[in-house]
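Kindly inspect what follows.
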Amino acid sequence: MRHPDREHVSVELFGQLVRAVHAISQAGARELRSEGLTPAQYKTLAMVAARPDIQQRDLSDALGVTKGNISMLVARLESDGLLSRTPAGAAYLLRLTPDGRDLVNRLRPQHARFMAACFAPLSDDELDTLGGLLSRLEADRP
């Protein structure tokens, strides 16, 4: 069934999505700031933890950020002693340092609990439905 005012509803739904993401992002950023990290830094560390020896350009693609942004993130994390960058031809391979690995291992369960709390108002079925709907939106972008 087509919604009679699909454009209006779509604009309203988009606004709701933006507000929800913003609220969750802000709360998550506050938690990470207490650890001296930004959300982008944590996501970078978590991605490198999941894929040791990832190339810097592949990390940029996986996170959906520019090569310039990933270069700045990596340089900061490297200077903080959390990440190492090893030349491999024209590329760099990234790996967590022991301190970086310890930090991610400590923060991962805390972050998972935080995210679970953010989605606590939804039932398991609603979470599954939301995941499916968001996947469809990602796959069918104009």
User: Anything to note?
Assistant: The radius of gyration is 18 Å.
